[in-house]
Amino acid sequence: MNYKINKYIIWFPKKEIILKLFNFLKFFLSKNSRIKHLNYLPITMDIEPTTGCNFRCTMCQVSSPNFISKNMNFETFKKTIDDNKQLLKIKLQGMGEPLVNNNFYEMVEYASSYGIVSEITTNGSLLNENNINKLLRSNLSRITVSIDGASSEVFQKIRVKSNFDTVVSNCKNLVRLFKKKIIRPEISAWCVVQNDNVEEFEEIFSICKEIGFDKLTYQFHLSGWGKSEWDEINRTKKIEIDLIKEKIEKIKKRGELEDLEVNIFEENLLSFKKQCVWPWESSYISKTGDVVPCCIIGDEKVVSFGNIKDSSFKDIWNSQKYKNFRSDIKNNKIPNYCKNCYQEYKN
Predict the structure, then answer these.
(1) 333 φ, ψ (degrees, to nearest 5)
(2) DSSP bridge partners of 140
(3) pLDDT tens per residue, range 255-280
(4) What are 25-84's pLDDT values in tens digits?
(5) Do 87 and 42 contact (CB within 8 A), yes or no?
(6) Rounded distance, CA 110 to CA 76, Å?
(7) Parallel, antiparallel or unpaired: strands 284-285 and 291-292
(8) Other CB atoms closer than 10 Å to residue 347's CB: what's the count?
(9) C-alpha distance across the termini of the chain, in Å
């Protein structure tokens, strides 16, 4: 039997324990107050290693003809971590495929040296034997693979330039090798449900069970990335959860019976009553070092609160621009680039 690493299990370097615990206590006591000026720093953060990707997924802004691919350099990553030693966990993923960045493993190691565990979301195409062996030696809390179809036809229609058979084979090898470890990260699948794959909703569960994933998450909300053109593109792809309620309940029951946890991702289905928590709980550092509100936007060209190469993250976190943003979200004065996530603005 082996045991998955819980996402918040961390081996703290001794000198970081007090900093992390003290910040976590302030975070825990204050995060629901929704004040503008925060006396704590986030305990989790998304950091984008790259916008480079070998796929051109139909619902992703990376497939835009004018989207520029760029790697985060190690110095920018190092500055982000040095400014945020209070962090417990980071997600090393953004618009691109994280394994494209040649400094990826060095990033994981550097974060780990400060007691920060990392998780990634990958398209699975680069999970060759060499990369899997490197991942086996890394301090990762979760590895998530995007599985958007149960057949080559559907998978490759959505994830353009992919190879379904290669991804499935890589994932099986990943699971096989990691499950030999006594202590290992969670290995999960993530499916963005849309009109091109909704007919394979149940088959996607079956293929994920066959591969051996620990968990499968279905996401129904497609982001517009804070851009009107992508709002229009992805609006045509959306499937309403209510239309397949019976299928969802059936899959959840299958998950319980077949030991594959099934989740429905709803964190970015917001409303005036269920407001966004990102401005108070986390942040997103783009490949350029810009501080962006969240991963749902994921592009500093839409909005940036500052760049960690020019200022400390602490100063940006409580800058006037960030505080104004918190105030707007609290008072339901939703910026245009955030409206895609709010029910009040759905057609």
Answers:
(1) -95, 75
(2) 118
(3) 999 999 999 987 778 999 999 999 99
(4) 998 998 888 999 999 999 999 999 999 999 999 999 999 888 889 999 999 999 999 999
(5) yes
(6) 12
(7) antiparallel
(8) 4
(9) 49
